[in-house]
Design brief:
Blueprint lengths: L1 H5 L23 E3 L6 E3 H6 L15 H8 L6 E3 L14 H12 L5 E8 L2 E8 L10 H17 L3 E4 L11 H18 L9
Parallel strand pairs: 5-6
Antiparallel strand pairs: 1-2, 3-4, 4-5
Helix pairs in contact: 5-6
């Protein structure tokens, strides 16, 4: 009895060491829900549109995942792939940060634009990816949005925007504000009326 009093009892179940874990765990085969901690196969999570089957937690989607979830298979045609950001203000380390995000995400910029079909209906879409500079708006992001809207006008189809922006990109300064002026002009043409830029 006295032995039981002074012996340490484990209150929680132990987690197997990394050596006993499946080696493919770190290769993206399994995904752990940050809310309920359920571990599930990544392919099953994808089948459920990246929503946890246990607690309905919605996982953050990359731009590619978002496109694959809403656009009909085989119908997507990316626009303006060759547009790349530069460093017009010679901001320190900006080019290195861009290169790092490009390597990490596989994207050229913080937004993907393109033509596609949604349940057979033609559309033009823009999808931001917060992994790239927090989806902040630089001159190239603004230009791609503008061109996508112009493409939608020419094709006479809807333009759909999935926004996840962290705001204007400080490394490009006033040039981003100049891009907003082009957006405002385009917006006025689209609505045939005045438009306001939210100030916050």
């Amino acid at each position: 009895m006295f032995k039981d009093l002074f012996s340490k009892k484990r209150k929680y179940a132990t987690i197997p060491s990394e050596r006993t874990q499946p080696t493919k765990m770190n290769d993206g085969v399994m995904t752990k829900c940050p809310t309920c901690k359920t571990i599930m196969y990544s392919r099953e999570l994808k089948k459920h549109d990246y929503v946890c089957t246990k607690c309905d937690h919605h996982f953050r989607l990359t731009a590619r995942d978002r496109i694959n979830s809403v656009i009909d298979v085989g119908s997507f045609e990316e626009l303006d792939v060759s547009l790349l950001s530069g460093n017009p203000l010679d901001f320190p380390d900006y080019e290195e940060k861009l290169a790092s995000d490009q390597q990490k995400t596989g994207l050229n910029e913080a937004i993907i634009t393109g033509r596609g079909q949604m349940e057979g209906l033609p559309v033009v879409i823009g999808v931001m990816d917060p992994r790239f500079r927090m989806a902040s708006m630089g001159t190239v992001v603004g230009e791609k949005i503008k061109r996508a809207i112009e493409t939608a006008l020419e094709d006479r189809v809807p333009f759909i925007m999935f926004s996840a922006s962290g705001g204007a990109r400080m490394q490009e300064g006033f040039l981003v504000s100049c891009r907003w002026l082009k957006h405002l002009s385009l917006c006025k043409d689209l609505t045939k009326n005045s438009c306001r830029l939210s100030q916050s």
